[in-house]
Amino acid sequence: MKINVMGLGYIGLPTALIFAKYGANIVGVDISKEIIEKLNAGEVHIEEPGIPAMLQRVIDTGNFKASLVPEKADVFIIAVPTPNQQDTFKSCDLTYVKQAMLSILPYLETGNTVIIESTVSPRTTEGIIKVMIEEAGFNIGQDIYLVHCPERVLPGKILEELIFNNRIIGGVTEACTKRGKEIYELFVRGELIGATASAAELSKLMENTYRDVNIALANELVRVGDALNIDALRVIEMANRHPRVNIHQPGPGVGGHCLAVDPYFIISEAPEQTTLIQAARDINNAMPQFIIDKVQELMQHYQSKTLTILGVSYKGNTDDIRESPAMAIYNGLQALGQFDIRVYDPHVTQSFIASNLEEALTGSEMALVLCDHDAFRSLLSEDFSSMEKKLIFDTKNCIEITDVSINKYNLGNFNWSETNYEGKYAF
């Protein structure tokens, strides 16, 4: 089986490599000449455990090559980005999907399968992709099999979850669904769940929207606790001891190309029916400013000017800064012009990021933790010894330090006292 995978980013590349590992002949296609050259030289442009070794393995077996242009194949998988448009409801921008489709149309032959893995708004596969293929002279379900098969993986565990997670196979016809299952049976050990293409699209979007809404609930609880001088983290801990309650953990916002993006694809298609989803988006979008306000309060109280941001990726142990709330906080603090700001992230390479932790913390007066990398979870009190003032604001609640010489504040518990109702906080 020969497969073209269109788009070699955080989803396309692992998908291409896993198919190649299980014996498929893969042509990975991307518009970036730099990415193509790196991959063919055995170099990886994204950070994900297991990817470098697997790339080298499938290059050695001859099952994978990268190319700027597609080739004739049995299967075409589209895994390109779908960002938000800058319209009222931040609808799905299908530019890259359409470009990918146009690029493969000259190579399509009867019997081929086209699979959309890109996250798209509901009814895109049937309403847009199907039409493009039909206009090229093919009948869907007879000449060409068209499927929407959304990815459902967690960064940091992509290769494992590609194999063991259940997979939704959304065919435009029953024959399309059947063909899609036959393709993914090559490596998927989870259940292959048959569905219509539109149901598969909406299911993927709701999986991420569910998490976004629940994180928004936790973040709203933090703001309630802040207003009422109640420890929100303790409230979450106690409430989650109820057998049917699972409040998520709060944070500085949500990011990445899923939670911060996908809910808008539903909103834009049904704006009058999505008031809850829209409210959740507003709450999570407001969290970076909430963090900025708290930083200003703490810096003013401690009469401090220098702070160090720890982590700018949107998720722990990744280099992905797409839609990162940490970046929004960094940019917002910079715009204030009040502070000397340093940044350290062991996973992200940017010109403004310090080369090591000691350089970033020496002489600093606050450590602002915005990402829960393992490298930060393992920090000890002595790691902060070079700071001018030992002040930590941990928005991810991931650093366990009990040293009384360090003033540590958590998001959801700003070290107030339940008996102290006179002042805002017990600084």
Automatic annotation (TrEMBL):
Top-level taxon of the source organism: Bacteria
Record Gene3D superfamilies: NAD(P)-binding Rossmann-like Domain (3.40.50.720)
Keywords for the protein's UniProt record, in alphabetical order: NAD, Oxidoreductase
InterPro entries (alphabetical): 6-PGluconate_DH-like_C_sf, NAD(P)-bd_dom_sf, UDP-Glc/GDP-Man, UDP-Glc/GDP-Man_DH_C, UDP-Glc/GDP-Man_DH_C_sf, UDP-Glc/GDP-Man_DH_dimer, UDP-Glc/GDP-Man_DH_N, UDP_ManNAc/GlcNAc_DH
Domain (UDP-glucose/GDP-mannose dehydrogenase C-terminal) ranges: 308-401
Pfam family name, one: UDPG_MGDP_dh_N
One Gene Ontology term of the molecular function aspect: NAD binding
Protein's GO biological process: polysaccharide biosynthetic process
Similarity annotation: Belongs to the UDP-glucose/GDP-mannose dehydrogenase family.
Entry-linked NCBIfam families: NDP-sugDHase
PANTHER family the UniProt entry points to: UDP-N-ACETYL-D-MANNOSAMINE DEHYDROGENASE
Name this polypeptide is given: UDP-N-acetyl-D-mannosaminuronic acid dehydrogenase
The organism of origin for this protein: Listeria rocourtiae
